[in-house]
Design goal:
- The chain is an alpha/beta fold.
- It has helices spanning 3-8, 10-13, 19-27, 40-49, 83-94, 109-118, 129-142, 171-174, 185-188, 192-211; strands at 30-34, 54-58, 99-103, 121-124, 146-152, 155-161, 220-225, 230-235.
- The relative contact order is 0.15.
- The protein binds zinc ion.
- Zinc ion is lined by residues 169-170, 172-173, 239, 242, 244-245.
């Protein structure tokens, strides 16, 4: 790292758990972010600012007026732009020393396989169950950590699936693949900072993993009720009959 980089990242290099070696790990990391909406906004901004070397951004959608209340990576001047292109512009302004690749297309098996081969970590910032199950299969197949977040109304959830660890559950251990209706902000509403908090927690866990630290949320599900100010945690266990991660 040169002097400018040492200065830019000095406040996290100062942390004994990160240090120069952790910052080098962060710089050498590639993080795949699926969805550049309410969760993806803080995830991408914090990871870029913190110096993750390469970000791979996937989102098919374009910026709409109703996104701007919570998707803070996009501004009013970005209406109609692909979200990944708008995000890349914001990230380039935050930190021009990292590289950002954009994929304004639907995530399918082929694209997913290609991107998971390159990524060290995947952050799930979608609100589609079908995509969540696809990401889970890819994460187990490629043995990459999957940082999972969800937020709707005034509630949020966070957990990390890490198939490199034999005891880690996967998304399919928790949820049946059939009979899930998408819980979308477009039909249920969401309080803006709720996605910000959950996205920030996803960024925190991703950055720890990128630095070479453990995630605290493997096998633990955080549930936040923002209305009552209640944070709860549940232990979640691997399903030994899971068709994706067991047997
Ligand atoms: Zn499983």
């Amino acid at each position: 790292m040169n002097d400018e980089q040492l200065l830019r990242y000095s406040r996290q290099i100062m942390l004994p758990q990160i240090d120069v070696a952790g910052q080098e790990n962060i710089r050498a990391s590639t993080v795949l972010i699926i969805g550049l909406g309410g969760l993806g906004s803080p995830v991408a901004m914090y990871l870029a600012a913190a110096g993750v070397g390469r970000l791979l951004l996937v989102d098919l959608d374009r910026v709409e007026l109703s996104n701007l209340q919570r998707q803070i990576i996009h501004g009013s001047d970005r209406l109609g732009e692909f979200k990944v292109e708008s995000a890349a512009r914001t990230l380039a302004a935050l930190n021009p020393t990292i590289s950002v690749e954009t994929f304004p297309q639907p995530l399918d098996e082929a694209l997913g396989n290609a991107l998971f081969q390159r990524a060290d970590i995947c952050v799930d910032c979608t609100d589609h169950f079908a995509i969540r199950f696809l990401l889970n299969r890819l994460a187990v197949r490629h043995r990459k950590p999957l940082v999972s977040g969800a937020a709707i109304r005034m509630e949020g959830q966070l957990t990390v699936f890490d198939s490199r660890k034999p005891d880690s559950p996967c998304y399919r251990c928790l949820y049946e693949e059939s009979g899930q209706d998408d819980l979308r902000c477009s039909t249920n509403g969401v309080l803006a900072p709720v996605v910000g908090v959950i996205g920030s927690l996803q960024a925190t866990e991703s950055l720890k993993l990128a630095a070479g630290l453990e995630s605290a949320y493997v096998g633990r599900l955080l549930i936040w009720d923002a209305l009552h100010g209640d944070f709860r945690q549940l232990r979640i266990r691997k399903d030994l009959a899971c068709p994706i991660c067991s047997g």
